[in-house]
Amino acid sequence: MKVFLETYGCQMNVRDSELLGGILRQEGCRLVDTPEAADVILLNTCSVREHAEQRVMGRVRQLSSLKKTHTVKIGILGCVAQHLGENLLDSLPEVDFIAGPDSYRSLPELLCSVDGERTALCRLDKTELYEGLPSYRPENSPSAFVTIMRGCDRMCTFCVVPLTRGRERSRPWQNIVDETKQLVQQGAKEVTLLGQTVNAYRNDDVSFAQLLWKVAETGIPRIRFTSPHPIYFQDEELEAIAECPGVCEWVHMPLQAGNTEVLARMRRGYSREDYLEIARRIRERIPRVTLTTDIVVGFPGETEVQFEDTLSLMKECDFDAGYHFKYSPRPGTYASRHFPDDVPQEEKQRRLEQVILLQSELTRRSNEAMIGHSFEILIHDRGKRGPDQWVGRSRGNKMVVVESNKSLLGNIIGVTIVGTGRWTLRGQLG
Ligand code: 5AD
Question: Distance, CA 387 to ligand 1 centroid (Å)?
Answer without folding.
Answer: 38
